[in-house]
UniProtKB/TrEMBL annotation:
PANTHER family: 7,8-DIHYDRO-8-OXOGUANINE TRIPHOSPHATASE (PTHR43758), OXIDIZED PURINE NUCLEOSIDE TRIPHOSPHATE HYDROLASE (PTHR43758:SF2). Its EC number is 3.6.1.56. Its cofactor is Mg(2+). This is Oxidized purine nucleoside triphosphate hydrolase. InterPro entries: 8ODP (IPR003563), NUDIX_hydrolase-like_dom_sf (IPR015797), NUDIX_hydrolase_CS (IPR020084), NUDIX_hydrolase_dom (IPR000086). It catalyses: 8-oxo-dATP + H2O = 8-oxo-dAMP + diphosphate + H(+); N(6)-methyl-ATP + H2O = N(6)-methyl-AMP + diphosphate + H(+); 8-oxo-dGTP + H2O = 8-oxo-dGMP + diphosphate + H(+); N(6)-methyl-dATP + H2O = N(6)-methyl-dAMP + diphosphate + H(+). It comes from Cafeteria roenbergensis (Marine flagellate).
Length: 192
């Protein structure tokens, strides 16, 4: 898996690129979102988004963090609402900032993984539920950033990144494997 990761053009972050991402993000309003990947052995649970933002794309489960809940609680709630299961060992893995050209707000996505859950994955109004082998992930039908950080996640690692999008294409980005989850949470340029 490490070979796949180092093949990512964004994985070789120069200090200059990191500074540029930090400058782009600093002071901008952040929208806090979660993304939870259920990884069990050599398979990953993904859902195809049936409506709204990212419609037609496969992704993990997640959404906006609501007032009064922690980020982890938000991640678990979204997984339950969208896939009908309760993860019992969710753990933070990464943080990604996404900027869309022409938009002031930067998406602040907190990525979690889990391997154990209660219940049966069940399609919801928002998402389907499908298992994919780790070697058969549908990257062509996922957000463009996913192919860059998934190998780190599957490898057991932690990561932080910043990607600038023009519609659904990446125009610039930086991705860094971090030593632990705490370091991943110190995203480029975000004040908290
Ligand atoms: C740009 N590159 C990206 N790469 C990978 N994942 C991305 C993403 N951009 C957004 N995401 C995820 O997509 C979901 C949107 O959630 P979204 O439907 O907006 O939230 P929520 O369910 O609260 O909305 P509604 O209740 O329908 O308004 C949420 O998991 C978020 O982390």
């Amino acid at each position: 898996m490490a070979a796949v990761t180092s093949a990512s053009p964004f994985a070789r972050a120069s200090p200059k690129m990191i500074d540029a991402a930090a400058a782009a993000a600093s002071g901008r309003p952040l929208k806090l979102l979660t993304l939870l990947l259920v990884v069990q052995g050599d398979r990953v649970l993904l859902g195809m988004k049936k409506r709204g933002f990212g419609m037609g794309k496969y992704n993990g489960y997640g959404g906006k963090v609501e007032a009064g809940e922690t980020v982890l609680e938000g991640a678990l709630r979204e997984l339950h609402e969208e896939a009908g299961i309760k993860a019992t060992d969710a753990t933070p893995r990464g943080r990604m900032l996404f900027e869309f050209r022409g938009e002031e707000t930067v998406m602040d996505v907190r990525v979690f993984s889990a391997s154990a859950f209660e219940g049966e994955p069940t399609e919801s109004e928002e998402m389907t539920t499908e298992w994919f082998g780790v070697d058969k992930l549908p990257f062509d039908r996922m957000w463009a950033d996913d192919r860059h950080w998934f190998p780190i996640l599957l490898d057991g690692g932690f990561f932080r990144g910043y990607f600038e999008f023009e519609k659904d294409k990446i125009v610039d980005g930086v991705l860094e494997r971090t030593a632990d989850a705490d370091t991943a949470l110190k995203a480029f340029g975000a004040s908290k």
